[in-house]
Design goal:
With about 90 residues, the protein is α+β, with helices and mostly antiparallel strands. The chain is about 25% helix and about 40% strand. Its EC number is 3.6.1.7.
Length: about 90
Amino acid sequence: MRRVHVIVSGEVQGVGYRYTLRLEAAEAGVAGWVRNRRDGTVEAELEGTDEQVDSVLAWMAEGPPGSRVTDARVTDAAPTGSRGFEVRTTV
């Protein structure tokens, strides 16, 4: 299992990024969470196989229609064995 922490910058709030990411993660079988941050970025953690996580990371670099991703910072995190994918409140 692989878990990553991601901060996505650009025009990523108010364009359905979090909710579309939830659908993409569910389709790929990836667990984790996503939330908006007050600084205008989107923060997420993804957990799954290397292939599953890489698939969702590729989508995150593009985002949904209407978004414009300028940066996606990815760092490794310790797997937690979590299941499901949730949209969390803004921090």
